[in-house]
Amino acid sequence: AQQKSAIVQELHVGAGPLTSALGLLRQQSGANIMYDANSLKHLTVKAQDFRGQSVEDVLRQLLKGTGFSFSATEGVFIIKKEKATVPVTGTVTDEETGARLPGVSVLVKGNTQGSITNGEGAFTLQADLHGDTLLFSSLGYKPGRLVLNGQQLVTIRLKSDASMLNSVVVVGYGQTTKGDLTGAVSHVSSENFNTGVFSSPEQLLQGKVPGLNVTRSGDPNATPAVILRGPSTFREGEAQQPFYVIDGVPGANIQLVSPADILSMDVLKDAASTAIYGARAANGVIMITTRRAKQGQSWISYSAYAASERISNKIDMLSANELRQYLKDNNKSLTPAYEDNANTDWQKEVTRNGMSQSHNLSFGGGNEKTLFDGSINYLQNNGIIKTSSLERLNVRANLEQRAFNDVLKINLSISNSLSTQNRAPEQVYLNMLNYIPTVNIFNPDGTYKEDLSRSRGYLNPVSLIDNNSDRTKEKIMLGNARAEVKLLPGLRYTMSLSLQDQQINRDIYNNRASSLSPNTNGQAIRSAFTNSRKVLESYFNYDKTFGKHDLRLLAGYSWQEDRTGDGFQTSQQGFVSDVTAGNNLNLGGAKDGYLPNYGTTRIQTLRFISFYSRVNYLYEDKYLLQVSVRRDGSSAFGINNRWGTFPAVSGAWKISKEKFMDNVRWIEELKLRAGYGVTGNSLGFDPLIAKFRNDIFGKFYSDGRIISSIGPVQNDNPNLKWERTGMANIGIDLTVWKGRLSVTADYYDKRTTDLIYSYEVPSPPYFVPNMLANVGAMSNKGIELQVNVVPVKTANFTWNTSANIAHNKNRVVSLSNDMFSVKYIETADLGGKGQSGNKSQLIQAGYALGAFYLWQYEGKDKDGNSTFRSANGGITKEPSSTDRYYSGDAQPAIIYGWSNSFTFRQFDASIFIRGVSGNKILNATLANLNNPAEATGYDMPRITLGEAVTDAKAPYISTRYLENGAYLRLDNVTIGYTIPVPGKYVRKLRVYATGNNLALITKYKGIDPEINMGGLTPGIDNNNFYPKTRSFLFGLNATF
Amino acid sequence: CTKLDVKVESEYTSDNFPTTADGFIAASGPMYTQLSSKYAVDYWRLQELSTDEAIIPARDGNYEDGGQYRFLHKHTWTKDHPTVKSVWQWAFSGVTTCNRILTLFQKAPESKSKQTSLAEVRTMRALYYFFLMDLFGKVPIITSFDNTSLPEQSSREAVFTFIEKELKESLPLLNTKTGQVTYSKPVKWFAFALLEKMYLNAVVYTGRPMYTEAVAMADSVLAGGAYTLDDNFINIFTPDNGPQVKETIFAIPYDTYQIKGNQFSRFGLHPALVDKYSLLFRPSIAMSTIASFYEKFNLTGDIRNNTWLEGKQFNSDGSPIMISTTNKGLDNNYAGSDPGAKISWQLSFSKELKLRVDSSMDLGNDELAKASGVRGIKFCPDKNTEAQDRNSNNDVPVMRLADVMLMKAEAILRGAAPTAVKGELQTADVLVNKIRARAHAPLISGITLDGMLDERAREMAWEAWRRNDLIRFNKFESAWGFKTDGNAFHRVYPIPASELTLNPKLVQNTGY
Lengths: 1040, 512
Known about the structure:
The complex is a heterodimer of chains A (about 1050) and B (about 500).
Chain A: E1 7-13, E2 16-17, H1 18-29, E3 32-35, H2 37-40, E4 44-45, E5 48-54, H3 55-63, E6 68-73, E7 76-81, E8 86-94, E9 105-108, E10 114-116, E11 122-127, E12 133-137, E13 144-147, E14 153-158, E15 168-171, E16 174-177, E17 185-189, E18 212-215, E19 225-228, E20 243-246, E21 249-250, E22 262-268, H4 271-274, E23 285-290, E24 298-311, H5 320-329, H6 346-350, E25 354-366, E26 370-382, E27 389-403, E28 408-422, H7 428-434, H8 461-467, E29 468-488, E30 491-510, E31 523-546, E32 549-573, E33 604-619, E34 623-634, E35 643-654, E36 667-681, E37 693-702, E38 705-714, E39 723-736, E40 741-760, E41 770-793, E42 797-814, E43 824-829, E44 839-844, E45 851-855, E46 857-860, E47 866-869, E48 875-876, E49 884-889, E50 894-904, E51 907-917, E52 920-922, H9 924-929, E53 962-964, E54 967-978, E55 988-1002, E56 1029-1039
Parallel strand pairs in A: 3-7, 8-14, 20-23
Antiparallel strand pairs in A: 1-5, 2-4, 6-7, 8-11, 9-10, 9-12, 12-13, 15-16, 17-22, 18-19, 20-21, 22-23, 24-25, 24-56, 25-26, 26-27, 27-28, 28-29, 29-30, 30-31, 31-32, 32-33, 33-34, 34-35, 35-36, 36-39, 37-38, 39-40, 40-41, 41-42, 42-50, 43-44, 44-45, 45-49, 46-47, 47-48, 50-51, 51-54, 52-53, 54-55, ...
Helix pairs in contact in A: 1-3, 7-8
Chain B: H1 21-28, H2 30-48, H3 68-74, H4 82-106, H5 112-136, H6 156-170, H7 188-200, H8 202-206, H9 211-224, E1 248-252, H10 264-267, H11 291-294, E2 308-309, E3 311-312, E4 322-326, H12 327-330, E5 342-346, E6 348-349, H13 367-370, E7 375-376, E8 396-400, H14 401-413, E9 419-421, E10 424-426, H15 428-438, H16 449-460, H17 466-472, H18 497-502
Antiparallel strand pairs in B: 1-8, 2-7, 3-6, 4-5, 9-10
Helix pairs in contact in B: 2-4, 2-5, 4-5, 5-6, 6-7, 7-9, 7-14, 9-14, 14-15, 14-16
């Protein structure tokens, strides 16, 4: 009702008393305008006309120059005397050390105007000396408050808050403070992120969060594997990865976020915290918060780095002469075709120093009504394998507008990512190691040296690099519109609409000389696909405090639809020239009968609908209770099991707030947390997974023509449902000595049931001899410990150190139920020579995922031939599948990280060490290379020099190649210097140098013990050849 | 909104397929594509690598492949053998495919072609069951698609009776027309020929001789007059063979790009033959035949002798095929002076296979080893074989007129009375001599059973019948190559271990 005539259609004000004009306005607009008539009686206005203007505008005009202003509160306009403001200046310092604090936000209470302290901790703003109070806030400090009381020059000392109890933690559909958490959440803010050439945000967290295992390769185009609190599915890829929520948009593509734009990441680890995301939360949820403008802020910042990457370690292969000598010593000789009297170092020929650069420009600002910010990020990352590269441009913009006296807040944000990836052919990695070094790269006639009669992908690596290209161009756009309405005191409604659109174009061209498509005269494969995702989130928040009770309620609905694979692929062969590559398919001319490769991508639509609710209750600021429930429906599951309910309950007790703790003054915070929740895993699914499907079944002859045959390719399973994870978590948070030491410890017990796996089913009566079914169960139990200490803190020197350590025990609990049963599932067919069908791992109840099941190496016999233990305990030279033994597993017992940061005057430094221990790695790469019987046709690793040339079983994948996978890596050292820049334009200028992967302590003999821990067969180094790198980086951060 | 049903935009589901006539034709395709997918490799290997017709020895670790070829050769296969498993699944998938198509077609609108189509599906199912009965003995009989309960096994006799009944019921409805329209489809003549094959082997399958019935089935084909022996034996197997071959009763069409699965050129040649046959790819050296089998090709003038490569090799222009190597490269056991001296050696395929490593049946991989073993070119090397997947265009016959004639001759030798067809009294000699005459081999009189087996070896080599023949002649237990096993239980393959786990009702074959 109060807004019924916010617009004044027409108003004529005659020259005369202000009060008359106000009366007229009140009459015309129906607005409720209040004033002290006595104090306005001497004021007059001139004659004015208004048309179609808001009441606010009219008032502003009428009061101009009168010394009076108005405020609007719940529809009532109150006119009062303007305060006399004068410039107030001050400095902010650290209470403990006296150090001046830059970047502290200073606000006038009840006002939106404010300032930020400069590099010297100084600020200036306009305030009323007699009525105003200043509010100070800064990350890591308790908020400060100062009544001006007539002072024009002030100083304030802020108390540090190392416990970060008040730091904001982003949780599902809202935020809370660290102190009020009831679940296990790790908050990592930007200053604690890893520094390096990173293309995706999870790399920023590697080693920083207890329980989060990130493994990555040196390939700029590879995505790291992220496993939280142990594997809990038999499926791979997205099914094992945490769920990402970026600025409140669930499932947004993480490529859209540039590392430089991220303010903080919150890793929601236990089910009590994640269950609000229901069926997508079983692997944890990572909430990414990007930098957004705040009221009164204004900034421009630029950051950039340039980096150089080199191979940190490579497999030591024999030189040509060493290989010749080995053959000679063993009375063997090279086939003449393989002897050019050359000495080619193939690794050197296909690698380079990888140069990378990144530039990030961001800016933002705003007033009480409007906020805006934007950023541009450019990344160029050239891999160390020639031609492999990533180039990406990200652009983001946010606009926020408040209206109706802050009742409505509208936010619009757009993010765009354009990237180009170039990949080198996969076959390069093996051939650069074992391609025979005694030949030249080229034949005398200029063609590439090649022997295509060889099988197993034996191809000239330089030719592979030179004659093949594989480029992927990707565009992702995410638009998000969000409206927040204050409906009643304490009651808010939020509606958020997002649209993400992704366009992926891939162009592969194997040219006329390519060994990958011999005798085709060039082959092009081109594809273009779009994927879109629409998300609607709609929810109510109600916050109410009454007496000692504090209640927060959330209830919401979400609707999501993903439509993927809209596009096509085609191919062509037979080009008379390479000059147009695959750009004009019409110029090709494949042989008669050639079938273009249309690929298998199909349009798939997945709909996901959810209802959710959460209650947070706090009593006396001591006892916390959180209860949440989510009901999710997914179109992907079997018609009988589409909906699932995911409840969670958790509580916390702030012991330090109890009366009996009042005397224990050295304890800042002591809190116990406990919770249990149920989540599901519905990520990584083909949306048509449960449906009966027909597809092209090959071709057949019919009356003179060859036509397509169509038949079923998938059994339907109407009972297919979610994988279900129940997790209990108990934790303790302790902060002592004014925040100088804080400890967080968690214990969890996670049990996943209804695991989905493709079971073999009898080929009669089922049509397709395998079927996805919910059968297995898996358990993960572990403890996590995080310790933060500030050993030294003075005005000139501070030292922060933080360590985390996590232990997880993973066990497969069961693989069978009454319908589907297997004793074990054999995995990891590593394709070892002469060992086809030999699997190296098995999934079996009672063992961890990644249990090695290998032949036991028993050394060499007197002739130098490998021997193995047979099933009955004897010795055999011909091991068979029944002679394998359980030999340990790939899951690390301990993962740890230790970071230290120092500041000394203008200098800062940080050192980060991380590692794992208690795991085994199967070095199948080395096994496959070490094949002395083939030394006449392949290069050999140095280890082969100790092998008998007759030992055809030397490459047999056995316990001989199972190694200790523990390592400790000096992952990052950064030294920075903040340049004191005089003048008011530059707020901060810092330069820094970083070294990544500077040292590695390990007994592992392969390239690097950081082996992909994702997937169903973790811990196997098999043709995992993309070399690991060591990089040096020089960077600059500037804020204006 | 709680509606979860989404539109399926790019799939044929049970709701939208098949609805058109072309859709029904496409839907019948899987029973043929299933057949072509493994007939000429996996099925062929079970029927041939277990005999003296073909062998894949290891060559310095290459083609060891976990011993799978060695196990077939030495009759030491187990219930874990990958090919045994794959062929069981292949054939049962074929059965299930046929059952599914039957269900689908029964719902189609009534027409004359519908009855023919249903009969074709039942005949194809009978063929798959014939493979299963022949390879595994007792198998479950499944005739419906919807029953998901685990099926019981039937005795070999019961499976025999079932196939016989199905073929006889389908016969009157099947097409009689030959040529392009029905090429690769089961026509009436094929049903007769398959029945003839069953009756000839009835002693093996059921213990009861049915030679007279076998002759009757042969006569149905011969009297029908739909087929004639092709004048040129070689033409039956060339890359461009097809409906124009008037001898082929049932064949599986293959195509380098579209119907993949013929890999004779890929596995059974030698890289140095690339120029001679204008190949676009480098063939493997894996497969050859065994000396004792090759020696059966000893008739003068017999055109079938040309289906093998033995001895010194020459290009089409008559120039010798030379290989550059060293003394050591030619013979890894070379002990003379200057092992690294470069030499040029004319490619010469040797009959004998000499093992370097007995346990892994390994010949080594020097040039002499690569050239050991007589290579088969009955399925003529195809210059249009695509270079990456190496599938050839030659169609592979399953049943042809020559076999019908040889089977009739054998049934007569085994006791059935000779019969007259179109006024000609066909004795065993008359029939065998038709085959010999076509092959330009000397005619014979007074053919014996042993002679019959050798004639079948010459005529039907590498056509996936050798195992069937050897069992019928009680020769499957003989020694050849490196095989010494004589256990008769190897006449049927074991039921794959994985299938026993999946269906606990299955009872393993005796001996395994």
